Amino acid sequence: xxxxxxxxxxxxxxxxxxxxxxxxxxxxxxxxxxxxxxxxxxxxxxxxxxxxxxxxxxxxxxxxxxxxxxxxxxxxxxxxxxxxxxxxxxxxxxxxxxxxxxxxxxxxxxxxxxxxxxxxxxxxxxxxxxxxxxxxxxxxxxxxxxxxxxxxxxxxxxxxxxxxxxxxxxxxxxxxxxxxxxxxxxxxxxxxxxxxxxxxxxxxxxxxxxx
Length: 211
Hints:
The protein is of the alpha/beta class. The protein has six helices and seven strands. It has helices at residues 20-29, 58-79, 107-117, 152-160, 188-192, 196-205; strands spanning 12-15, 32-35, 87-96, 99-101, 121-132, 135-147, 181-185. Helix 3 (107-117) crosses helix 4 (152-160). It is globular, with a radius of gyration of 18 Å. The two termini are 19 Å apart.
């Protein structure tokens, strides 16, 4: 693919996400970014509906949501009259036996997710999409995470910290949830929410000098 940009000293993108983890990881890459929160005309937040379709395979769902977030962010950029820059979006999901574990709805949902993940090896996949003009680039990072057996008391204590909320699968590998992980086969940054290898590779392909 031909570069679409003149190489710049620092890449600059719109980030179609409010995730603090993704912001931290972009800073680690040396990427300048502006958070782009999609809003309705009346000023209310408009989130992409993150619900799998009937019989939709988990990876297809993850790719669809990442692409949709990037496309929605791109159109929002245009409607707001912002200077054109690539829009980067991502979606992370935990998958166990074909079931997608998204963000818990409440404490009870977080407890149930963690009980089901206890003592298992599950998949964590992150789809990353970059929208620039008519093109949407997409990459997926999939990792295998093994949890030790968890007892009910420690699950309750962990949920009480508040860390599981807004996290796919109700845990944060970069936080206290790391104490549950006995083995990781794959990308640590991908499990956090933004795989650095794939993200840097895509930014390079569109002409940014990441390193």
